[in-house]
């Protein structure tokens, strides 16, 4: 006996329960923990082949000859591709993407060939046998502040002026009662997400499908399509699950182009995975920096002048200028100020985004210098920052939509027991260790870019929301579900959120702490439009469903009336072995003001993840350049050290309530980046307090403490 279910003609009564702000479990959690979530490399279309790249072994030169004979004779080898036989690409705006298009070698590790074979093992062996002969040229891979080719870029990432100046900083420095004038440096650091970059490329006539590990499916589509002379609609990028990015997957890079090129040449679907070692050459990194910070103040620590000069590097084939000194423009009050950026193009891979680009190295220098000023003036480091709190954005003059840095500093000091701190350095011992505490501020801009979304009501009382957003492990699906649930006044169980596919409405990349703000705005507007349409229909839903869409370009493009930033305070306690110089972070506390927190559970993970990465930056991370060969010596996890469980002993992240109606419909600020900002400075300042040794060059190695 069977029964027939008649679809409802109207939706169930809508709920009033607020879901934004609740600690909702991840909606895809079961898929992840059971292994059902599919990542790029796990897609295996029929007739699949494997691609293995060949990388340049010189830092600068030209390819003379490519000998593929031994490679193509191996069983199972389908093709060996190099500049002489590679499919031609349209000249890209980003020359890094002109893969296998010329004889020129711009850096060691650049792709010079690729082998396609039936199995990964065959492809690897063939790539090993392929021989490339080079005309070697002299190379230059060393960043120096006095490099003769240093120049002023027109803009720094994303579109800030390279230099700014207000007042008379040089005269103010000459007249200041207390002056700090120091050089700080940070090394090259490499993004190392758990999932390496991977692409499966499938051609079907003039159509191309890319299963790609990316932070932005729409961006990959729009970049790859013109390279192959295709309209964007002929390229589909699928990335439902991404195992981390930290910025390295924020823009299309050479591996995805190489995979598409290899598949086109071979006439077969091709799978390409970048090894951990290869990632140190072809997937970006944080530029090393040399920074001179000059602060002038009165004896009570009130700043009269701030000057911050940053020197950094890019590659010969593409300019990327990190916005290192930009946070200095708005952090503290001072009537006289100057910030500058200088860039040198070297024979190195192109730097790119790495979690909180610019703010991370820049705030290490600024917050270290603030600590030095506090010591010179005999003022508590927390109080010094409070005394220099601006009433409005020092650069633009705009009022802040919200600025709760002082509240973060006060709450952090209370929780950390800062009032009990003896300011004298190098005198506290515990269990044989020198113990010290340090503080630094955090900040990150509020970004929002246009996105589109659709919202749909189904006849069975459920809803679906579609947007080409990407979840790189941050919980994007979950928070978008909560945002949609609140707007539709429906339980999360009745809402399906589809993301990770360029066939969905366009969305910004998952990066720059702008994902939730940008995507959430589009989701809210689409759900609002759907609610209005449902109300107009008296709640009736046609059997085929009801769908509406929203585009936030006009809303997001409106001129800002406020300066918008997230703020925070980092507190660190360290223990340093006086004999060996080994440093351990005993406690780490971050207090943040980031608007409305959409999901406390995912937010805590983001804050703690950033803080852990900042701890790692302070103590371990350093990509060491071999000047003779032009390559990074420690290009694997055996030698590129990152924080492990033993290094992260007690990390706590909290936030204060912040109501900011000027941001977006959710009142939320991005939180993916701010956790790392300032952490390294807090650790370095704590090391000074513990030992009396000021470390101005990261990482804080043993030899920098034991002399």
Automatic annotation (TrEMBL):
GO molecular function: iron ion binding; oxidoreductase activity
The UniProt record lists the keyword Oxidoreductase: yes
Aldehyde oxidase/xanthine dehydrogenase a/b hammerhead domain location: 34-138
Magnesium recorded as keyword: no
Origin superkingdom: Bacteria
Record-linked Gene3D superfamilies: Aldehyde oxidase/xanthine dehydrogenase, a/b hammerhead, Aldehyde oxidase/xanthine dehydrogenase, molybdopterin binding domain
Keywords assigned: Molybdenum, Oxidoreductase
InterPro entries reported for this sequence: Ald_Oxase/Xan_DH_a/b (IPR000674), Ald_Oxase/Xan_DH_a/b_sf (IPR036856), Ald_Oxase/xanthine_DH-like (IPR016208), AldOxase/xan_DH_MoCoBD1 (IPR008274), AldOxase/xan_DH_MoCoBD2 (IPR046867), AldOxase/xan_DH_Mopterin-bd_sf (IPR037165)
Pfam families: Ald_Xan_dh_C, MoCoBD_1, MoCoBD_2
Protein name stated in the entry: Xanthine dehydrogenase
Organism: Streptosporangium carneum
